[in-house]
Amino acid sequence: MSEDTAAPAATPSSGGGSTPVESSRERAYAALERARRRTMALTDCLDEAELTAQHSKLMSPLAWDLAHVGNQEDFWLLREAGGQQGVRPDLDEVYDAFRTPRADRPTLPMLSPDAAREYIAEVRARAVEVIAAASGKSGPLFEDDFVFGMVAQHEQQHDETMLATHQLRRGPAVLDAPDPPAPMSRGTDATHGEVHVPAGPFTMGTSTEPWALDNERPAHTVEVAAFDLDAVPVTNGAYLRFIEDGGYEDPRWWHPDGWAQVQRANLSAPLFWKRDGGNWQRRRFGYTERVPPGEPVMHVCWYEADAYARWAGRRLPTEAEWEKAARHDPETGESRRYPWGDAEPAEGHANLGQQHLRPAPAGAYPAGAAPCGARQMIGDVWEWTSSDFTGYPGFAPFPYREYSEVFFGTEYKVLRGGSFGTDEVACRGTFRNWDLPVRRQIFAGFRTARSSGGER
User: Fold this and answer.
1) Which domains does the chain have, with CATH numbers?
2) Which pTM was predicted?
3) Are 231 and 368 in contact (CB under 8 A)?
4) Could you read off the pLDDT of 134-175 as tens digits, one per residue?
């Protein structure tokens, strides 16, 4: 997605005597603080040379991201919400993501890492005062404290972007985290079967989620034909069979543009994989390890996901199919906020928040299963869909066109569900991510689907 699309999150219902306003503001403040801890953890572990270096032309220097999150907070919270002059309006041009492509950002007059830390700390200190004084303010930005959640999500999105930069970085490991939980029942490394989603209408998108991004709105009814969906994301073990069967050498399975990309970029396996004799190894945040067959495959582009699905005699699900499988409750006819229900994510629901720096094995998190039985639809890996990124019927841009609308069209494909690098505040059943179909540095995998001839 656009790195400056601050996707706002859902507000929990009030409890314990708190009013909804207090609850949403407290949630926004907690999300801001959680994001800042993660931002600092991702940058304090490296020296100035590593922070100012560009580890890939696909990504900004980490020092740019560090100051950029403060600049957005400066603009939206101090100036727009607080009516203040701001700390450093003169930095707007340097940290405008739409003005300078990532590949060119090392040439900008960026703040040094230490200066960036001082800048974002000063902005945050003043932003806390703005949040505390916001009661009684009116307007779209203040409805349900939208602007505060928007800024929190913006920084969390950059935290995932910075995590992707860490994965691209060459050098000794500087990040570590415990492994995610194993599945209750392991099954095989190839497949855990499929689930059936009956035909019928469901409510896609939202008109009630207080911090929903404009591209998630409005709620609308979509008729979906019956289909079957992989119960879990496609695993490394299953994807290896595609490789071993010559999948990267057979143009039959590839979209024409994908086949051109295979030849142009000399693709032969997911990004960061390397064959070592009879085994496949992968690089993960500075460590080299054997590719675990039971984990969801990741660092594959849309073209790779599409080719695998064709090879398997299946297809990628549409965005509407994915959302119906994740949210629709056939017993009530309603669409849930998350696969497991309306409750905020808990540790047993999904692999989120960079608590584990890898996907959980396929079949994990049974408590997070959707009504149809599919697991891991939130967290672990973003999932490519077959759909282009477009607006819903009745779409209205907010708070500005560059938020989503400028990306609508056939150029970008939609991803759903979030990854282990996504924070809970920037992930829900209606959340829409998007990227170019050639992108592989993101924490993306997929699951496949097939049309079903009838009900079961």
Assistant:
1) 20-168 (1.20.120), 177-456 (3.90.1580.10)
2) 0.93
3) no
4) 877 889 999 989 999 899 999 999 999 999 999 999 999 999
Strand partners, 335: 328
Residue 371: C-alpha distances to residues 15, 185, 227, 374, 455 (Å): 27, 19, 15, 8, 16
**Which two three-digit tokens encode residue 444?**
């993306």
Residues 400-422 pLDDT 10s:
898 899 999 999 999 999 999 99
- Do residues 420 and 356 lie in contact, with contact meaning Cβ atoms separated by under 8 Å? yes
* ω into 218 cis (within 30 of 0): yes
Q: How far is CA 14 from CA 18, 113, 210, 337, in A?
A: 6, 39, 13, 16
Q: How far apart are CA 414 and CA 387, in angstroms?
A: 6
Residue 64: its H or E element: helix 62-73
Identify whether the C-beta of residue 95 lies closer than 8 Å to the C-beta of residue 71.
yes
**With contact defined as beta carbons under 8 Å apart, do 441 and 215 qualify?**
no
DSSP 3-state of 165: helix
Q: Which residues contact 258 (CB under 8 A, 6 or more apart)?
A: 301, 302, 303, 304, 306, 307, 437
CA-closest candidate to residue 336, choices 198, 165, 206: 206
| 379 DSSP assignment | B
E-state strands within 68-219: 194-197, 200-204
Task: Look at the block and give the residue holding tokens 């500005």.
Answer: 400
Which residue type does 305 have?
A
